[in-house]
Specification:
The strands form 2 sheets. Strands 5-6-4-7-8 form a 5-stranded parallel beta sheet. The chain is α/β, with parallel strands linked by helices and about 300 residues long. It has a domain of about 210 residues: P-loop containing nucleotide triphosphate hydrolases (Rossmann fold, 3-Layer(aba) Sandwich). It starts with 16 loop residues before the first helix and ends in a 5-residue tail after the last helix. The relative contact order is 0.13. Catalyzes the specific phosphorylation of the 3-hydroxyl group of shikimic acid using ATP as a cosubstrate.
Length: about 300
């Protein structure tokens, strides 16, 4: 029943800044990302300006350093200038953030809610690995309980009400456990009883722009999406139209989540124009940031 934990996160190799500086020559500039070897230290961003002195200075160079150690305060000017292309060491940031807030979770489960195609399963696996939690997908558990019948087939054979009953039972059982990350179905939020079970843990809404969701779903097809499969029209248009209707019905319910992760906000923070450029790790980092904010509001600032 339990899904596999996500694969290990990759850490970018260390960059030899001295070697780069030697290759620059007598002038110019270089911007690079460097990760310290010392344990438990975050990667820092180093912006180096190499300027030649006068001819009598034996061509010595002066180096000015600009250092930033905060995910939230990453200098957007460097990204916007186009001079800095390498990403932050997201895996290290994610690890440090999980170590900061992990003890304050007290083993509570994390429930990811959001529209179909919002990345709940992918991000959930990243979170489960870094927190040392187990991961479950509620749709998968319903399918297993139905002897392998897919969600789309369950809707077709038995109707949405039957599926929702099974979904509620799955959430009830999961709510009795600890140290889980759970990816819920897009419509799980519409039943108040489901919120009763999820409130035993911490709920996180992955909020993705509808246009991006429609592109994702249309690209892979709507056959596995029972609420979309029978609509007419081209894949993108029918998907966007249906998603818009569903969001109108569910937006208030999604807003009940303890924390909201806006992919638009993450993209703006990191200087991306398109949320499709965001990695699951970057989204997981923001999820932990928002969970941290919820914990502080719930229990007061615990010294982070």
């Amino acid at each position: 029943m339990e899904a596999k934990i996500a694969n290990g996160l990759l850490v970018s190799p260390r960059i030899d800044s001295e070697k780069i500086a030697r290759r620059i020559g007598t002038g110019g500039s270089v911007q690079f990302s460097r990760r310290f070897r010392e344990q438990d230290r975050l990667q820092v961003l180093v912006s180096a300006q190499l300027q030649p002195k006068t001819r009598n200075s034996n061509r010595h160079k002066t180096v000015s350093l600009e250092v930033s150690c905060s995910y939230k305060n990453f200098p957007a000017s460097l990204l916007e200038s186009g001079g800095f292309q390498a990403p932050l060491d997201e895996a290290r940031i994610l690890k440090n953030k999980s170590q900061e807030i992990g003890p304050y979770l007290s083993g509570r489960c994390i429930y990811l809610v959001g529209m179909m195609g919002s990345g709940k399963t992918t991000v959930g696996k990243v979170l489960s690995q870094v927190l040392g939690y187990s991961f479950f997908d509620s749709d998968t558990l319903v399918e297993q309980d139905a002897e392998g019948t897919s969600v789309a087939e369950i809707f077709k054979l038995y109707g949405e009400g039957f599926f929702r009953d099974k979904e509620t039972e799955v959430l009830r059982k999961l709510s009795l456990m600890h140290r889980l990350v759970v990816s819920t179905g897009g419509g799980a939020v519409v039943r108040p009883i489901n919120w009763k079970y999820m409130q035993k843990g911490i709920s996180v809404w992955l909020d993705v722009p509808l246009e991006d969701l429609a592109r994702r779903i249309a690209a892979v097809g709507t056959g596995s999406r029972p609420l979309l499969h029978h609509d007419s029209g081209d894949a993108y248009t029918k998907t966007l139209t249906r998603l818009s209707t569903l969001m109108e019905e569910r937006s208030d319910a999604y807003a009940n989540a303890n924390a909201r992760v806006s992919l638009e906000d993450i993209a703006a923070k990191l200087g991306h124009r398109d949320v499709s450029n965001l990695t699951p790790t970057a989204i997981a980092i923001e999820a932990l940031e928002q969970i941290e904010g919820f914990l502080k509001e719930e229990n007061g600032d615990f010294g982070l």
